[in-house]
Task: inverse folding
């Protein structure tokens, strides 16, 4: 089976120029990530703030240009496609944003926010776009009269539903959800999460579901990828990851290690040598500073990037 | 009885909030009066602007001539009202041209990254000159007609608008709805038209009132220096320039146009401040 989304050796770096005459330094936000997402599969992407999750998502959506590696969507290489050539594919891949406030244009009515998807892709006639938008609203659990209102008339949860309706309006097969509930009240999080799960199942969506803690992605994800400083630390089917984390970072995120995570995530401008996690790892040993751990499969479908096989044996 | 919510247009809401500020309301009143005077000039003034009354030269304010007469016996009030016409025309045109051009340049500089450096260096260069000096230089190159004054003043003001618009665009482009539009496949033109432009109206309106004021002031200064519209045209700056010779004998000659300029420009500034305050809550919410 070929994957719907296939990412190989993806690197995204931003040049940072301190002054006019200094040589720009590279901020490597994503470093050598391999990731495949099958049709209808939900992959959870987890990591702290600054681990490169959003950059990875934006690269997959081709909102930023990768510096190296390859991204294929349904077999089509989109790594270097220009904007015009991407347009047709965007109908099939969409994104749900983190902030329900800034992700909706305050000057547009809901019908125009959702209708923009139809307008850009020439879906339907201007007349039946209203009906289409109404149907989308119904799918996300909002009444039809919401169409003529402005975003500020809605609560955070309702706004996020509008954002979801916009993302699904074009009939996408693949949706990137960038922390879609982390800006919402806890009481609303579960509702929106359930909605996403329902939609995913009924539409057979493939998803890249981003979260900064493992709790949110557990139920919706088939597989989970743990990212740290732009590198994949561990990949495993979701039930396995929660019960048998094999990487110290995953274990720390789950709160399963004796020592909690110490300090802050290092700056991606000067990542630690060897294993990037070693500075905060309770199990770090001398070779960790020199050996860059490769992602090695420990059991089928479960891989970790850690040289210590003697700890966290499940 | 069921509560009825009435949809109020944002424009009306803004007007309401503006009028709640007394100073801004007063300023608006003055400007409406000036505007009405300028528009209706031929019908409300008792004399023709060029009519000379040699027997009553430099006459003090009286019931016949409320603001006195000048050195040719022309009615000062009449010329003030006609001067308002010119000032408003110049100010309004400069405002339109400068905000239009500035908006376009600012949008391009802020959203199309490649153009940013070039456009901003050009605006820096233009802004490096003192306003009045640049205006005089342009007038010298262009010629002394009304259109030339507008072109010169618009050239002076456009960089300011471009700067403000660019700044606002730099904030807006980082908001997720712009990214959402890009993810949907929107073209640059669409992002600018649908997502950036409507959110720029507020800062633009405020900027426009200040430009209006600055244009009136600079036009008067140009006329005063003899670099503006031809001296025969009744303009506030021309009137002050001509009055210099007689100000010992006839201080009303210099006071009348001076106060007219002061009131108009002050009102525009106050209105601009009021507009900014009235618009601010929305701006802040947008830029959060």
Result:
């Amino acid at each position: 089976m070929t994957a719907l989304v296939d990412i190989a050796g993806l690197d995204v770096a931003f040049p940072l120029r301190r002054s006019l005459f200094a040589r720009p330094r590279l901020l490597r936000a994503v470093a050598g990530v391999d990731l495949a997402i099958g049709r209808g599969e939900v992959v959870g992407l987890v990591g702290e703030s600054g681990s490169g999750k959003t950059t990875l998502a934006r690269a997959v959506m081709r909102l930023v240009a990768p510096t190296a590696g390859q991204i294929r969507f349904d077999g089509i290489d989109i790594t270097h496609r220009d904007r015009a050539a991407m347009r047709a594919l965007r109908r099939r891949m969409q994104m749900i944003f983190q902030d329900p406030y800034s992700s909706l244009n305050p000057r547009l009515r809901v019908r125009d926010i959702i209708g923009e998807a139809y307008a850009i892709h020439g879906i339907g006639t201007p007349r039946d776009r209203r009906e289409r938008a109404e149907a989308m609203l119904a799918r996300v659990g909002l009444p039809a009269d919401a169409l003529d209102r402005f975003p500020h008339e809605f609560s955070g949860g309702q706004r996020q539903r509008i954002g979801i309706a916009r993302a699904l309006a074009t009939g996408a097969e693949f949706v990137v959800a960038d922390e879609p509930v982390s800006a919402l009240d806890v009481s609303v999080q579960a509702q929106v999460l359930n909605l996403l799960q329902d939609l995913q199942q009924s539409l057979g969506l493939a998803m890249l579901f981003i979260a900064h803690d493992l709790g949110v992605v557990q139920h919706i994800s088939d597989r989970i990828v743990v990212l740290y400083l732009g590198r994949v630390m561990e990949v495993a089917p979701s039930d396995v990851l929660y019960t048998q984390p094999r990487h110290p970072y995953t274990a720390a995120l789950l709160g399963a290690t004796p020592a909690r995570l110490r300090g802050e995530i290092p700056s991606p401008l000067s990542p630690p040598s060897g294993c990037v996690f070693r500075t905060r790892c309770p199990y770090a040993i001398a070779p960790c500073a020199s050996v860059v751990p490769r992602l090695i499969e420990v059991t089928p479908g479960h891989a970790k990037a850690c040289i210590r096989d003697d700890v966290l044996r499940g | 009885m069921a509560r009825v919510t009435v949809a109020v247009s944002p424009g009306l809401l803004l007007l309401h909030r503006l009028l709640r500020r007394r100073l801004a309301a007063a300023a608006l009143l003055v400007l409406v009066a000036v505007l009405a005077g300028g528009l209706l000039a031929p019908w409300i003034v008792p004399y023709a602007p060029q009519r000379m009354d040699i027997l009553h030269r430099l006459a003090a304010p009286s019931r016949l001539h409320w603001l006195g007469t000048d050195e040719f016996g022309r009615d000062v009030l009449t010329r003030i009202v006609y001067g308002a016409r010119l000032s408003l025309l110049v100010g309004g045109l400069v405002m339109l041209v400068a905000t239009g051009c500035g908006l376009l340049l600012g949008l391009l500089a802020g959203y199309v990254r490649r153009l940013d450096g070039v456009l901003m260096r050009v605006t820096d260069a233009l802004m490096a000159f003192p306003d009045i000096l640049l205006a005089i230089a342009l007038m010298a190159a262009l010629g002394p007609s009304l259109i030339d004054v507008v072109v010169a003043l618009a050239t002076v003001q456009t960089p300011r608008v471009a700067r403000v618009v660019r700044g606002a665009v730099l904030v807006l482009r980082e908001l997720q709805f712009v990214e959402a539009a890009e993810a949907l496949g929107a073209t640059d033109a669409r992002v600018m038209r649908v997502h950036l432009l409507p959110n720029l109206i507020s800062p633009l309106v405020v900027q426009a009132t200040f430009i209006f004021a600055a244009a009136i002031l600079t036009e008067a200064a140009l006329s005063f220096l003899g670099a503006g519209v031809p001296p025969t045209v009744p303009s506030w700056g021309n009137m002050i320039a001509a009055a210099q010779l007689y100000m010992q004998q006839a201080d009303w000659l210099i006071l009348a146009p001076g106060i007219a300029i002061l009131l108009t420009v002050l009102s525009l500034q106050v209105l601009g401040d009021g507009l900014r305050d009235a618009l601010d809550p929305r701006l802040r919410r947008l830029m959060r």
Residues 1-5 of chain B have pLDDT under 50 and may be disordered. Residues 188-224 of chain B form the longest helix (37 residues). Chain B has one domain: 15-42+72-286. Chain B is about 75% helix and 0% strand.
